[in-house]
Amino acid sequence: MMRDLRRFWPPLVLLAAFHAAVVLAGFLAPYDYAEQHRDFPYAPPSRIHLVHLRPYAESPDGKSYPIEFLVHGRLFGVRPPGVVFLLGTDGSGRDVFSRLLYGGRVSLLTGLAAALLSLVLGTALGTIAGFFGGWPDQLLMRGGELMMALPWFYLLLAVRAFLPLHISAVEAFALLIAIIGGIGWVRPARLVRGVVLAGRENGFVQAARGFGAGSPYLIRRHVLPLTFPVVLTQATVLIPQYILAEVTLSFLGLGVGEPVPSWGNMLAEARQYHTIVEHTWLLAPAIAIVPLLLGFLLLADALSGQQVST
Amino acid sequence: MFRYSTFALALVVSALCAGAEDLLVLQDLSGRQGGRLVYAQRSEPKTFNPIFAADSVSREAIGMMMADLVHINRYTQRTEPALAKSWTVSPDGRRYALELRRGIRFSDGQPFSADDVVFSFRVYLDTALDSPQRDLLMPGGKPIVVKKVGDCRVEFDLPVRYAAAERLFDGFAILPRHLLEPAYKTGKLAEAWGLRTPPAAITGLGPFRLKQNIPGQRLVLERNPYYWKADKNGIRLPYLNEVDLTQAGSEDMQVLRFESGESDVIRRVGAHDFAVLEKESRRRGYTVSDLGPGMEYTSLYFNLDPAAGRPGFLRRRSFRQAVSTAIDRNALVRLVYGGHAAPLGTPVPPGNKAWVDASLRPPVPSVSAARALLSSGGFKWSGGNLLDPAGKRVEFSIITSAGNDDRVQMATLIQADLKELGIQVDVVPLEFRSLLDRVLRTHQFDTALMSMADGDADPNPDMNTWMSDGGNHLWNTAEKSPSMPWEAEIDRLMRQQMTVPDYARRKKMYDLVQQILMEHMPLVPLVSPDILVGAKRNLGNFRPALMDHYTLWNIEELYWRELRTGERP
Fold first, then answer.
1. Using one digit for the tens of pLDDT, what is the confidence trace for B522-531?
2. CA distance to partner chain A, nearest, from residue B328 (Å)
3. Closest residue to A274, CB basis, from B273, B328, B411
4. How many residue pairs bridge chain A and chain B with CB atoms within 8 Å of each other?
5. What does pTM read for this prediction?
6. Which domain holds residue B545?
């Protein structure tokens, strides 16, 4: 038991750090996400060096300026005309590090919330289909197949045409979660249904039924716990997938709009040849997803280990 | 079989434009024969049928295999004799008589005559076929009439007087009647010359003919041995033996192929990719060049349709002028194009050298001048936000194509510029088709950031853009007649310039059109991107131009200064 608890700590710390960083973006980021340094497009990451234990940032023009801490409500910064770009700038001279932090707000939250929505829907509907069988099963599964077969790209184009041109950031956010989560429930539902279908034939389920247990009790006590490993691994797969799904939706004009950053629209800007050969720092969001994903994977691993040992 | 040959020959001679072969000899051209040029196209051509090809990739391939009557030299932007060796215009300017080249042949060896010309234009004008090029042959809304007046002579009657009408002939490939008439008669012309047609069945009067088509990979073109141009030493063009059109799949892959040396020529490179190529050019043996701004221009279009229900301030001139004054065009040039573009003060791009009104300079960006314009128009500020004369907050959206990163970036920069005036701008990137639908059909937009290109170095193809009833009249495509006095004036000037043959007078009228446009600002011209091209260093006679096709427009003149190892002369 103790060993299992220890396995929780690394992923939890990692994920907590990530989420704290994006929540505190306003404090940690040296610049606002929309601030343009028009003299420094595609500036590479600033070099930082220490002089008498004091950090200095080198501006793209070659001059160094001391980094100051806790000024103007920011953790750190450089007095103009100096600049500090920890991860370089994009084509409009906006600080990639600041945008990465602010962009994480949208991306982490959409990924998490949309995954939660599709998993809740998927688990509920999958359990109903698997446990009861018969017409609810037929209805839900055929309906799910229909959802998967629909040409969503064109349907979403139509959806976009009906919405007003300007969608505020909050509306866009809700919309993203609703669309991604609403479409995404089918796959987890099919998996959960499979597990439930096999699980309800278990001896202990049959025995409980024999003792007179009702369906709600059976589902809650015996069947649902069986689905947890599947649901957890699904979550770890779906979250990064949904962070990227936001790129596609941004392309249709359904994502968050400029200048508000998201990892999705930051990566969309980076998908050009010159980025890969010359301006590699624009790929920072892709790198940032990796430890995040690792955090979710380790957490899922710890959780499923916990499951088996009890 | 032999017995009939004299008889057949006699028939051919009488029916055709016979005589000694009328080669077009280019007196200042020289080069050497042989070699192969590889060019990576963005994607696979959709068809080889010149009547229906509308996409640039198909037209690129077709252009190498076909020829037109009168051709616009892409470099000088002037017309030159092609299949027509000369032409005369009647005093009323409505009848063009073209003298065709004698004794020349299609790439399958069959002779060319006036019948082919008449057949070709009959096909292009056929309402049932509805060729995408048909509209170009309808000046004033009525079709041009084509007549054969001898084996080597054709006459074109224009429904209205139309200045510089010889420019119309450019791009109309002359088709082989002997191959396509049967298909035309049976109504199967639309299916003719598709991607599965055997190469021998496709023939034209261009410098190359199709040799092999490997679908999804490449096209191999070989030199047309009957081509009708020669250089000063009497060598028949083209110089190159073969052209390989490979299919790259995307713009990025075109750049990669060129950089690695797999492709010899590249056209229209993006500004940031250009910088990458430039760095490697010395080591890799190619040169890249910036030809300066071309024929394309990007503008911010206001929605002036009063029935669309959009905010009223969009229809105020002072507001539109203030927006224009506040936008820092130099920042767009620097940040979006890395300096490879020109700021615009008129919607005619500087690449259209003979027609741009050079006195219209881009405004010097100034927040205070913009504020003064707004104040004079009755706008006010409250808490840093701009209010229109009715007291409503000024807030609008810019729609643009989500697939074009340059335009999205421009919209974002404009958003930041206008924030200085207290204007709240929302950038809404849309999928391209829904963007067009909003601008052209439903008019559900405030402003749109879009690019247009002048079709030719002449104002006539732009009638459709500036006339109030034109289909590309983007600030209000709904109107059938001018709704504002200045629009009526533009209509009048455009109609008038179309009928005046004299360049200086036409230029004056077109200048006036540009001045009216800039005074009333239905669109804010922003930038015109430079044409950025590249080619292997030992490619001779390479003369890239500002007009489409930029690099390979004179493919028959290109040659290798030194042949690569293993290549036959």
1. 999 999 999 9
2. 11
3. B273
4. 89
5. 0.85
6. 24-285+537-560
